[in-house]
Amino acid sequence: MSTMLDSQHAPAPGETLPEFYDGHVVVLINYLRRHHVAALREFSKRVGKLTILLSIPMEPDRSWEAQWQDLDVAVQKSWMFTANWRHSSGFKEDNFIHVPVDTLKRLRELRPDVVMSYEMGMRTLLSVVYRRMRRGVPLVMVGNMSQHIEQERGPLRRVFRKLVCKGVDYLTYNGPSCRSYLQSLGVSDERLFHLPYCIDWDTVYSGPRAKKNGDDPVKLLFCGMISERKGILQFTNALKRWSAANRDSSVEFMVAGSGPLQEQVAELGGENLKINFLGDCDTGQLGSAYGESDICVFPTLADEWGLVPVEAMASGLPVLGSKYAQSVETCCLEGHNGWQFDPLDEQDMVAAIGRALCTSADDLAKMGQNARQSVAHVTPQTSADKMLEVVRTVASKSSP
After folding, report:
1. Model pLDDT, residue 85
2. Which of 294, 325, 327, 335 is most buried, with most CB under 10 Å away?
3. Three-state DSSP string of 297-350
C-alpha cells in the first residue's frame, strides 16, 4: 500500500498527530448532519484517504442546508421513496428510503481498502455484493438503531436484515439497545464494535450559568421537531396538569424548532405556564438557548439515540427525558444529572415533572455540573478514535 500521509495530515508545530491508518476508507451514508461532519473531519486526519458517498444532499424534512466543509463528498445516483411509518406509541411519520443505484460502480472506481456503510438498507446490501466481488475488502455496517423502534419493522424486514448481517464482516452499535437488537439478529460479540455518537460542540454553551433567584420562573427547553414522534404534545399536557395543581409555581417552556403541532402546543399555555416559541435555531442560537435554560426536556416517543440530551448536558443542563431515547437511557442518571419518565404514561410524566420542578436552585446547579462532567468525553476526537480502532482492527483481520 502506498504512503498517503501528505501535507493535509501533517501536524502543525507543537501538535501531536493521532494514530494513523494508511489506507482508503469509503463511507456510505444517506446524508450528513453536523455531528457526522465533526466526527468525519477528525477521522479524515487519521486515514490516508477518506471518501464519503451520500444518497442525497439533505432529506426534505430537514430545515438546514448541507454543509460538508473540506470533506471529500460525492452524491450518488439514488432513488428515494417515502413510506408512512406508524408506531404503536401512537405517532405516524414520513420515512425516507434511499436506493443508491450506482453503489457498485462507485466502489469499483474508488477501490477502497475498507468500506463502512450506514444502516441495514439497500446501500449496505449493495455494498455486500461488492464485498463478494472483492474478498480482500472488509465491510463494516454502522448501526444506529434501538429495539423499541425496530421491534415493529415487520417479519420481512427482519429476514432482510439477517441476510445483511451475514453479508457484512463487522457491525457497530451506538448504544446498549442497538447492541441487543443486533444480537437478536444472530450477530456474535466478536463481530461487534461500539461506535458512539459525538455532538457538535459549536452548539454547546460553555459559559458560566447564572445564579437563579427564588422568584424566577423555571425555564424548560425543548429542541426539535414539534411533531407527534417527539412527544411534545403529551409532555405539554402533563406540564399543564402539573402547573394547574401547583399555582404558586412559575414555568417558562421554551420551544426551539417548528412543526405541525405548534398551534396545539401553544393553546396549552396558562397563567403560570408561559410557552415561548424560538423557531428554528442555528448553532449559535441553540447555544444561547441552552445557556438561558434551567432544564432540558426530551419527551420523545421513539429516538434511536437523541443528540439534544447530550448537547444539553454538555451545556450544564440536567435533562428531563424519555426512556425511549438511548442517550437518556445511557447518560441520564435519576437525581444525579436528570430524571427519566415513560412518555406513554401521563402519571409517570407528571411525577417526573414534579421531581424536576421541585428541585432547589442549588441542587439544579449541582446536577448541571454533574451533567457536564458525565458527557465531557463525548467529542468528535473520541468518535474518530473509535472509528480508527474499528478500521485498523477489521483491516488487520481481513483476508482475500
Report:
1. 75
2. 325
3. EECCCCECCCHHHHHHHHCCCCEEEECCEHHHHHHCCECCCEEEECCCCHHHHH
CB 31 within 8 A of CB 59: yes
Confidence of residue 4 (pLDDT cuts 50, 70, 90): very low
261 touches 267 (CB < 8 A):
no
- Pick the range with the lowest mean pLDDT from 114-118, 154-158, 349-353: 154-158
Work out whether strand 273-279 and strand 338-341 pair parallel, antiparallel, or are unpaired: unpaired
Residues ≥6 apart with Cβ < 8 Å to 31: 54, 55, 56, 57, 58, 59, 62, 66
Question: Which domains, ranges and CATH numbers included, belong to the chain?
Answer: 7-198+379-397 (3.40.50.2000), 218-374 (3.40.50.2000)
Beta bridge partners of 303: 325
Grid cell, residue 399, equals: 483476508
Q: List, in order, residues 6 or more apart from 71 with CB less than 8 Å away.
A: 32, 37, 40, 41, 44, 50, 52
Contact 30, 59 (CB under 8 A): yes
CA distance 135 to 115: 12
Query: What would the pLDDT profile of 253-266 be if each residue is shown by its tens digit?
Result: 999 999 999 999 99
| ∠ Cα 277 278 284 (to 5°) | 165
What DSSP string runs through 22-65? EEEEEEEES---HHHHHHHHHHHTTEEEEEEEES-SS-TT-SS-
